[in-house]
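Budget justification note: compute hours in this period were largely spent on complex prediction jobs such as the one shown. Inputs:
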Amino acid sequence: MASSKQFDPASGTRDFLAAEYEGRERAFAIIRTVFARYGFQPLQTPAFERLDVLTGKYGDEGDKLIFKILRRGEHEATGEADLALRYDLTVPLARAAAAYGSQLPSPYKRYAIAPVWRADRPGKGRFREFVQCDLDIVGSSSPLSDAEVVVALHDALDALGVPEFRFLVNSRHALFGLLEAYEVPDELGSGALITLDKLDKLSPEAVVSELVSGRGLSRKTAQGLVDDLTAPDSVERVRARLKSSETGQAGLAEVDQLLELTKDTIPAERIGFTPNLVRGLDYYTGVIFEVVAPGVPGSIASGGRYDGLIGRLGGKDSPACGGSLGIERILPLLSQAEETPYAQIEVAVTVMGEEQATDSFRVAAEIRRAGVRTGVYLGSSGKFAKQMKWASDQGARFCVIYGAAEREAGTVTLRDMVSGEQVQVPFDQAAEELSRRCAQSS
Amino acid sequence: MASSKQFDPASGTRDFLAAEYEGRERAFAIIRTVFARYGFQPLQTPAFERLDVLTGKYGDEGDKLIFKILRRGEHEATGEADLALRYDLTVPLARAAAAYGSQLPSPYKRYAIAPVWRADRPGKGRFREFVQCDLDIVGSSSPLSDAEVVVALHDALDALGVPEFRFLVNSRHALFGLLEAYEVPDELGSGALITLDKLDKLSPEAVVSELVSGRGLSRKTAQGLVDDLTAPDSVERVRARLKSSETGQAGLAEVDQLLELTKDTIPAERIGFTPNLVRGLDYYTGVIFEVVAPGVPGSIASGGRYDGLIGRLGGKDSPACGGSLGIERILPLLSQAEETPYAQIEVAVTVMGEEQATDSFRVAAEIRRAGVRTGVYLGSSGKFAKQMKWASDQGARFCVIYGAAEREAGTVTLRDMVSGEQVQVPFDQAAEELSRRCAQSS
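Corresponding output:
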């Protein structure tokens, strides 16, 4: 006996039937429109890359999650892989920037909304195939670029209708400045930041312990840092602390410039300096940000400046910044999409006997040509009740009944599937009449 | 030194930059609109399936072309695969039909426009990642379904603007009837058809030889079959020949019913009975068709009825028919798409010094809110000429100049990038004015 799982999609992947598919596509279309309005342009790269393009770019943990593709033909037996599914959209961007550099505008502002694949342990809300939604600016070190990424993401979230969200903004320079103010030796800095990044998950005491025992900071320094970053007046305390560090001052200036540039376009309650925002990835070099929303663990968007990364990934060394919408987390926040049942067609055309079939087909073609989604009954039953049930199951608003009587009279009967009301209309006017009625009732 | 190929996409795959990407997406959108108008609904399945879902479904040759995904973690060293990239959209349809059967409308009319992957030897116009564009009706044995598939494909080709094309229609029953009329033993039938399918590539003599030496037919039978199928009056000859075969009569009736049902919607010169159309795949059971276009080798669309396939592929045994647009072959026929250069933005906003940056940002936001694609200069140069060059390179129709003088006066300068003409507009009216001008000039 076949198990009930036999026809499920592979673990961690999903099938999308019509209603869900269209809800997702609607969201993607909104995002695309916003990004295009900023002059970002689409880039589509293949689902797989040569294995060497991907390996060594995501750290040891990341490398383990890459789906590798077995060599083919006589080489299959080696058990070796030569290709791999893309793990993100950033490495393919770096490869494309290297491949098409001179053909691309400068700066190159690109967006990509596409699936990526990671062999993560599947779990609630965690998938092995999921869509990333990235926008990046390669080749500009201007603070206007950071601001543009932030504002474009803001507009996208706003256009999607995410009810409440807030940009948390910091700078890697501010973080390093804070460490400098506490005289943390340079070589302990990155490790200390990785631990400080856990302040949203661990208790302040636990973070202090880890800074001392795991990262080699003195207890006094560790306590001072954690106090600064968890105090209710953290913003003011950190601002004051950074006065003693040149790097810290530069970081604050980056944050302030971003806030200044976006002040006319992002409401003040939706954005703010957040000294304890760290971002795990160590490739960020300047402004960093995350977007949080009530009730959603983690962030719904994030990004920052990552000068140097494009070069490390194989491209020409270029300043760059970018951001990403966590679209799989955002979609569940957009509740309205699935409330109305999926209506496959607006108009259903019956087929009452073979003699009428060609005419039924013709009238359906005319209605479609008027832009109305129209289905013809494809079952084998000539029974009226059965065809009405089909029309109703399809979500049709109107039904065209065309039997021997109508054929004789050169008419069709239009039935309003909601009111049940029926009217006779000349055959040649059916399309126009239905187009008018559908426009009215939508 | 890096070789120039180092940054190319993997062999047989392609990157799509903005202009090409958007040309493709425009075509897909047209197709989607047509299919939806017929009440077909989208189904999206994952890029990969469990390996056992795919293997054994495409024949030995097909199985060799499946991209297999290596197991992960501790199992990677086994060199075994457990997943594979989808090879087509039909097997995933069969799996989904089995998984969601009762949730799906009946008949289930679905379309899918999505990439598939085949480890074919890459060549001119042959790719390892390419888009398939399928529509299928599962659960209806009505001839109306075959006709609907054909008409929907016709409308899609028409809507795409394919200048000239023709549907070649036949039925597997007509083919088997012809073999019956020539008293070819049943067990030689399928082999004989595979050879007859080569009439478009080999000479009639070569096909006769192969039928005799390779397929075990008598020379007289082989010659008779080839004469019937290559004669200028082939249609009439085959119609006459099929009189002696019940199967053949049934096949002719299928073809004639399709031609009758589509006569009001497909111009007569675009469709016709084609006795020598065979279609290689042996899963077809009824009407079969291909669409040919001048100058394109092979077909640009094809399909037919395949009543047992869904069951064989793992689904509930259901009647089914469908068709597919060879979209990678069709796209090059649609010439107009790439003639106009890709314009990234409509309006370019200059940034003349840091003091003006926030205001430049604000005016850009207002113009975007009016629906106009707008870019802000993100370079580091304050030089006017450099910013004008950027605006021009981006394809901007208008440029907003906002320097110290404009700031003082509360205005912006609008420059028409074609005529070079400049006008002063109050800052707050810039967005409205540009929205008006862009609408006029487009």
